[in-house]
Specification:
Layout: H1 23-57, H2 64-80
Helix pairs in contact: 1-2
Length: about 80
């Protein structure tokens, strides 16, 4: 906002534009976030597949309570695929 109480052109509220953090800093932050989220997704997928393989291959793990665990793994994989 100007000293005389008028707003700057193109900025109706007079507040600073927080969306533009300035070039390189914003790009490296975005790259770091993408890498971090990609690692989390990869760990989630691998972990769920390992649980499904363990329940499918070991007869002692095929119990009623593990049916719910398998259901949770499958739904988690489906959500991860979104």
């Amino acid at each position: 906002m100007e000293a005389n109480g008028t707003a700057e052109p193109g900025n109706s509220s007079g507040d600073a534009d927080w969306g533009d953090l300035g070039g390189q800093e914003s790009m490296w932050g975005t790259v770091a976030l993408v890498v971090l989220l990609s690692i989390i997704v990869a760990i989630t997928v691998v972990g769920n597949i390992l649980v499904l393989l363990a329940v499918a291959t070991h007869r002692s793990l095929q119990t009623l309570s593990n049916v719910f665990l398998v259901s949770l793994c499958v739904s988690d994989l489906l959500v991860t695929g979104l």
